Amino acid sequence: MEKLLIRGGKTLTGEINCSGAKNAALPVIAASLLTDDDVVLQNLPHLQDITTMFELINSMGAEISLDENMFFKIKTSNIKSFEARYELVKTMRASILVLGSMTAKFGKAKIALPGGCAIGTRPVNYHLDALKKLGADISLTNGYIEAKAKRLKGADIKLGGITVTGTENIMMAATLAEGITTLTNVAKEPEVVDLANFLNGMGAKIYGAGTDSIRIEGVASLKGCQYEIPPDRIEAGTYLIAAALTNGSIKINKIGPDRLTTVIQKLEECGAEIKSSNNSIDLKMTNEIISPVNITTGPFPGFPTDMQAQFTVLNAIASGKSFVNEEVFENRFMHVQELNRMGADILTNGSAATINGVKHLQGAQVMATDLRASACLILAGLVAKGETKVDRIYHIDRGYERIEEKLSNLGADIQRIPN
Ligand code: EPU
Asked: Which atom number of ligand 1 is nearest to the Cα of residue 122?
C-alpha cells in the first residue's frame, strides 16, 4: 500500500491554484440525473470520490466523456438501472446523494444504506423523513433503502436536524415535485448554494439557498446546462495552515475569502497576516510563534468540522493551551492519538479536546483514518523534526488533488512511496 514520506522542517512559500470543490461537485453530478439533456462540467477536481460518483451513475446507464478542454459531459438519457450498489456506497457515503434525484426523476431508487464511518454513525434519517413528506414511499430491506413515488408533491418541511447532503437531496427532489416546497432548518453551506445555482441553471426555481429557509417551486422538467465547479474552501484552508505552520507565506489563486471567513479569522488569531482579493488569498506569518486558538465546530457559517483536524496541528505547536469542541460529528478525534504519537500533548474527553502546545513534533510512522485526519497528519509531518510516513493515504486521494505535487511546489520534502 502506498505511503507518503515527509521530511519535515521546510518553510512553505509560493503560489498554488485552488481546485474545484469535491463537496460541490458530488451533488452536482447526482443532480445531472434530473435531466435527459447533456450536462457539461468544468473544473471538476481529479479525485477518487469523483471517480466513484461517476462509476455509480455509469452503473445506472449514464455516459461520461471528456473533451479536449477537460470539460466532462454527462449524458443521462439512457438510465436503465435505479440501484446504487453496496460495493460503491460503502466506499463513499455521498452516494446517498442520488436518492433525491432518482426518486424525483424516475419515481424509484434503490440505494444501499450507508453504514457508520470513522468520524461518526452518520444516519440518514433526516433525508428519509423529508422524502416521505414529499410523498415518497420508503422501505428498508436487506440493507437497502427503496424509494417509490408517482410524482413527488411539494410540502412544508422542517428537516429533523441540520444536514448538508440531506438539504441537497431534498432540494434536488423538490425541483421536480408538483407544487411548492418550503424547507427549514436547512444547511447554509456554500456548497448548498452552489447546487441551487446549478439546478437553477437547469431551469429549477429555487430561492433562498444559503439562508434559513429555501423555497422550491416545482417544475415539470429540467434541461441540460454547463457549469463550473466552484473552488474548494477546505483544500484552500488546508494549504493556508500548511504555510502558517511552517512560518511560510502562500498565495492561493482561484478562491476568494468569502467561503473561508471563520477559518481566516482563526488563522489571524494564530498570528497570520491575511490579505485577499476576489480571486486570491495571501497568507504570511508575522511571527514564528503560533498563538493558541479555541475552536468550536458548527454548521456554516460556524467553524467547519472539515478543518478541525488540520487546526488541531496548529494548536499542537502553539505557545499555550487551547480547547477544541467538535459539535458536528461524535467521533472526529481519531487523528489525536496519532498526533500524540508524534509528541503532541492532547487530551480528549467526549467532544472536547484540550491541547497543550509543545515546542515541536517528531516524525513518526502514522496511519490515516479518514480524509481530513490524513490531511492533519501530512501537516504534522511537514512541521515535525525528522521523517514521517503516513499510511493508508487512499483517504487523502479521495479529497485532495495532487497533494504531494502541490506541496512540493511550495518547497515541501514529500514523496509517495510504494511501501
Ligand atoms: N445527521 C443525522 N441524520 C441525518 C443526517 C445527518 O443524524 O439524516 C447528523 C450526522 O450524523 C452529523 C450531523 O448530522 O452528526 C451533520 O451531518 P451532515 O449530514 O451535515 O453531513 P454530510 O452531509 O453527511 C457533509 C460533507 C462532509 C462534512 C459534513 C459537515 C459532503 C459530501 N460531505 O456530510 O464532508 O463533514 O457535511 O459539514 O458534502 C469531508 O469532505 O471530509 C466530509 C466528511
From this structure: 11
Residues 6+ apart with CB under 8 A from 89: 95, 96, 111, 112, 113, 114
CA separation, residue 93 to residues 159, 276, 287, 299, 341 (Å): 19, 34, 41, 19, 29
pTM for this predicted structure = 0.97
What band does 258 get if pLDDT is binned at 50, 70 and 90? very high
Q: How far is CA 199 from CA 44, 163, 169, 249, in A?
A: 17, 19, 12, 38
Atom of ligand 1 nearest to the CA of 300: 38
CA 370 – ligand 1 centroid, Å: 14
- Residues annotated as catalytic (active site), given as ranges: 117
Q: How far is CA 323 from CA 292, 379, 416, in A?
A: 9, 19, 33
Give the residues surrounding ligand 1 with Cβ less than 6 Å away: 23, 26, 94, 120, 122-127, 161, 163-166, 187, 191, 305-306, 328-329, 371-372, 399
Mean pLDDT value across residues 349-371 = 96
- The per-residue pLDDT for range 8-62, each reduced to its tens digit, is 999 999 999 999 999 999 999 999 999 999 999 999 999 999 999 999 999 999 9
- Look at ligand 1, atom 27, and give the residue with the nearest C-alpha: 306
**Residue that the C-alpha cell 477544541 belongs to:** 324
